[in-house]
Specification:
By secondary structure, the protein is mostly helical. About 55% of the residues lie in helices and about 0% in strands. It contains 17 helices and three strands. Helix 3 runs antiparallel to helix 4, helix 7 runs parallel beside helix 8 and helix 9 runs antiparallel to helix 11. The N and C termini lie far apart (about 70 Å).
């Protein structure tokens, strides 16, 4: 069994630490606000433009005419619900959990992890570092929302969003409170862009929980989606996985949730699966990787999307350098403060603009910018 991240100190009440509730720019209104600190963050995320864009962002499957397939908005809501259920049993801060869960995928580019890889390649060619959706989530929240002023969220929420990583096979997570402050958060964010491979641990137990629940929420649901579209059959599931976790999303989620609660109550400084359950979960994730995520049947359109990513990125980059003249890029800049236009390189603007596009917006602009239009009988 792989992946235990050891803790540095017991963390049963880390969410109560006032330092983790700090904002980069403390506001006077919060002193009289009826809501708890992290509940304010939940509301700010829910009312953000980035959250609204979830409705048309890919989870795993894209370009399918099937209304029952999960989109990103369903995924983050499931993460929130599952993590809150566990958090309540463990006595954690449910508002911190909800804010981190709802905000953790805001930075995803069009077409999910495929789009992330395509955009990352273009960003590296443009010498602005890799594109990493967790770092982009923070950029949306801190720099692009509210006309460039950002949402002014708490350190604990931003840290949990940056540290999420549902693809890794960690079975145990313990918080790393360290000497975390906003300067350290910025360093961690820059480090993720430079090299996203080293794992970083959240500063709170709530952040650790959201990170594990990211996996809990998608691993069984992706299975159901794949069965829905006829990609796989339920009978293909490995025997040890079925024996330990079951063969339906409902059973899988229940078993994993029950196990996290039991193990984390026994070890209050960690959020953990038992070794037996962790092994079965890794087996299920490996099955999904082989038969779902890397299945060539769902990658048929990926080469076309990759080509369109390059065409759009280069088009937007040139437009930001010279204009902008295109209506979409001009509208993007008009919604941000002058400091953004004056202080950011065109390459960064092109990256930010593409990352904030939905799948439909991507395809619409690709059509508008690449397919000639009939002008009628005369010019």
């Amino acid at each position: 069994m792989s992946g235990e991240l050891p803790g540095t100190a017991p963390a049963a009440h880390l969410a109560a630490d006032p330092f983790q509730r700090r904002r980069a720019a403390p506001g006077r209104r919060e002193l009289t606000d009826l809501r708890p600190t992290y509940a304010i963050d939940v509301d700010r995320i829910l009312h953000s433009q980035a959250y609204t864009r979830y409705i048309d962002k890919t989870q795993v499957f894209y370009l399918l005419r099937n209304s029952h397939i999960s989109h990103r908005v369903i995924h983050v809501q499931m993460v929130s619900r599952i993590a809150r259920t566990i958090g309540q049993k463990l006595g954690l801060d449910l508002d911190l959990i909800e804010a981190a869960a709802l905000g953790h995928d805001l930075g995803h580019a069009p077409f999910g992890h495929d789009g992330e890889a395509f955009l990352s390649e273009l960003c590296q060619e443009a010498s602005i570092g890799r594109f990493v959706h967790s770092a982009m989530s923070l950029r949306c929240l801190e720099r692009l929302e509210k006309s460039g002023r950002g949402l002014n969220l708490t350190l604990g929420v931003l840290d949990a969003i940056l540290c999420h990583d549902g693809e890794s096979d960690f079975s145990t997570l313990a918080p790393d409170p360290g000497t975390m402050d906003f300067a350290e958060l910025d360093r961690r964010k820059a480090g993720r862009i430079a090299d996203p491979s080293p794992s970083i641990r959240p500063m709170t137990r709530e952040g650790c929980l959201v990170r594990l629940c990211d996996t809990v929420s998608y691993v069984g649901r992706d299975l159901e989606d794949a069965i829905e579209i006829g990609l796989i059959d339920r009978s293909q599931l490995p025997g040890p996985v079925k024996e330990t976790l079951g063969s339906t999303n409902g059973t899988i989620v229940y078993k994993l949730v029950e196990n996290i609660i039991e193990e984390s109550k026994t070890n209050p400084d960690k959020i953990a699966f038992s070794p037996h359950i962790a092994d079965a979960l890794i087996g299920l994730k490996n099955f999904n990787r082989q038969y779902i995520y890397f299945n060539p049947k769902i990658k048929k359109e990926a080469p076309k999307i990759k080509r369109l990513y390059r065409i759009l990125f280069e088009t937007f980059l040139e437009d930001f350098r010279q204009g902008p003249f295109l209506k979409p890029t001009k509208r993007f800049l008009d919604n941000l403060d002058p400091a953004y236009r004056e202080g950011e390189a065109p390459e960064v603007m092109a990256r930010d603009f593409m990352a904030t596009m939905t799948d439909d917006a991507f395809l619409y602009l690709a059509k508008e910018l690449t397919i000639p239009k009939w002008s009628g009988d005369s010019v």
